[in-house]
Amino acid sequence: AAATAGSGAGSGAAGSPEATGGSSGGGGWRRPHGPLQRYYGPSTAEAAEAPPDPTDINGPHFDPEVFMTKVRSECPLGQLLAREAALSREIRALDSDMQTLLYENYNKFISATDTIRKMKVDFRHMEAEMDDLAANMAAISASSARVSAALQDRHRRGAQLAGVQALLRKLQALVEVPGRLRRWAGTEPARALRCHARARAVLRHYRHLPSFRAIEDESHAIMAELAQRLRTRLRCETLDPKELTECVEMLLQLEEPAEELSEEFLSQAGARLEAELAALEAELPAADPSGTATTPPPPASDILDFVDRGSSAFVGTLCQLAGSYRALFAARERVDRYLRALQTFFLGCLGDVRQALAAPRPPGKEGPGLPDLLATLAASVLGQLKAVLAYVQLFTARDVAFASLPYFKGEFCVTAVREGLVVAFVRWLCRTARGFADGPAERGAPAAPPALLLLLARLCLDYENSTISYILTLTDEQFPPQDSGPAVTPGPALCAEARAAAQRLLDHYVQVQGAAVAQMLRKSVETRDWLGTVEPRNVRAVMKRVVEDITAIDVQVGQLFEEGVRRAQSSDSSRRAFSVYSSSRAPGRYAPSYTPSAPMDTHLLSNIQKLFSERIDIFSPVEFNKVSVLTGIIKISLKTLLECVRLRTLGRFGLQQVQVDGHYLQLYLWRFASDERVVQGLLDEVAASAAHRCLDPVPMEHSVVELICERG
């Protein structure tokens, strides 16, 4: 029975260690092919040919429970004890072989362990170096953005420095005014008057400062001495009409009383004409006291010479003096002078505004805001215009003899005051303001700051809304026109000119600010290696700077213009997925097809989609509200980003960086635009161009993009 059981057990475990152990005759079971090779199992080909056997202790499908169940059911107790002894010997043999193998290869194991440990350390070092490299690349990107920002700051500071240098030159010129006046007052009085006229407005404006007050007082003393010398010269009987006219004109420029100068002019002119007339009468023969002469005797000189001297001397002097008097003291001349004074005053106020905008401010101390500067400028100009109208109104006073003459009053009120002064000044103001947007900047001259463009646009818009109608109404009340008088410029025509100037200034402001933001984006795209860039881990610094600048522009525009109307926003505007395939070609494995055998031309799909999408006009005129202005700036900036991306070739990580940057811009810029679809559409086109220009277009997971943007 034992033999039968033994043979049964041996046949039941064919190919197993039991059969081999039974034939060994109790001498211990040895595997001929090496214990380690048998331990690690048969080759792949043998395992594929042999059926799975859970009782094969050396097989890959060995199951201890099945093996023990089979042995207990088929083997008697004696064979089980023999098998236990054989397994013990086999285990000891395996341990001995393992120890032998270990002793033989101990140095190799130690070297391998050291090598693995060193490889792990080197790998950690490589990871650290890769992290450092990524950090360095991010730092380089941030540095490039900072360099770009520094260049812009340098440009702005250069403009401020140019303004400061111009101011210093003006201050130096003001300091030198008294010396120049003293040098020119005796030899070139006309030149001294021109110098004093240029400096007078500035000295009056800053008279509250002690240094400027000292310069003004010294200048006034010099000009008072000049006025005294001119009055002394005016009383000289040897002056010819031209010298008399020049002397009176210089006294008028010195703001001497026009009434006194008019009387002195007429007195001197009358004395000269009487002297010339007496000289002519002296050449006539004496009258016959008896009265018996039938014919008058001829004059002492030839009659032709007498007539020639009379016409060239007396009549010529009379005509010259009459023309000079009309040029010096007529009402129209005074109105023209007031117009020039208004223009000079406005330019001075504008210079003060530019100086306030460019003046450096210490940290923690804010200067006047744009609303305060606008209110000061508008109030100053309007107050000066009212003062000028009050001066001009003296010509229509009741005690003035010629004011009641119909040919004077009708023409003076309409042609001189309304059209020649008020309307001319408003048109000149609009042209001057618009010149900051239309006229090319002079070589070396600093460009107008964007804040000045915005302020002038608001000023012209206020003129169109209310100021022009108020000024014209005030003028018509003080200088009522005649019913049959000349035609006047209608108020709506002036308002249209003011609105056109405001529109041009606001459009130019959008272009200037959009170009500044676009310059940052263009530099950031052109200076980056999009093929060799590392995997994006943060938002580029230039994108953060763009959002900061747009936010600052939003605050600046909001000081002067209303909010405007926004299109109704979707509930997930800030969380909308930014896909690189939203409007672009996808990789071939994602592209759909119209027929099973014809894959879709994704370029054609993109073009068809653009046909049905709303066209975005980049340089369209903006409306007079904050939302429209910010939308125009954002369109210019993103359009520049799109055109720059179209010219670059990108790798996989470059595409993913564009994806991260675009999603970051989408998170923050949509709230500034009038329609979020404008921002999304332009960013989709940026992503489409990036995917089209990418050599390995594999996008980043959107959850990772969101995590990077939220962390940034």
Automatic annotation (TrEMBL):
* Keyword terms of this UniProt record: Endosome, Golgi apparatus, Lipid transport, Protein transport, Transport
One family name in Pfam for this protein: VPS51_Exo84_N
Tell me which InterPro entries the record gives.
Answer: Vps51 (IPR014812)
- Any single GO CC term annotated in Swiss-Prot or TrEMBL for this entry: cytosol
Q: What segment(s) does the record annotate as region Disordered? A: 1-61
According to its UniProt entry, one GO biological process term is: Golgi organization
Mostly located where?
Golgi
| Localisation per UniProt entry | Golgi apparatus, trans-Golgi network; Recycling endosome
Output the PANTHER family linked to this UniProt entry.
VACUOLAR PROTEIN SORTING-ASSOCIATED PROTEIN 51 HOMOLOG
Q: Which family does it belong to?
A: Belongs to the VPS51 family.
* Function according to Swiss-Prot or TrEMBL: Involved in retrograde transport from early and late endosomes to the late Golgi. The GARP complex is required for the maintenance of protein retrieval from endosomes to the TGN, acid hydrolase sorting, lysosome function, endosomal cholesterol traffic and autophagy. Acts as component of the EARP complex that is involved in endocytic recycling.
State the oligomer form and interacting partners.
Component of the Golgi-associated retrograde protein (GARP) complex. Component of the endosome-associated retrograde protein (EARP) complex.
Which protein are we looking at?
Vacuolar protein sorting-associated protein 51 homolog
Q: Which organism is it from?
A: Calcarius ornatus
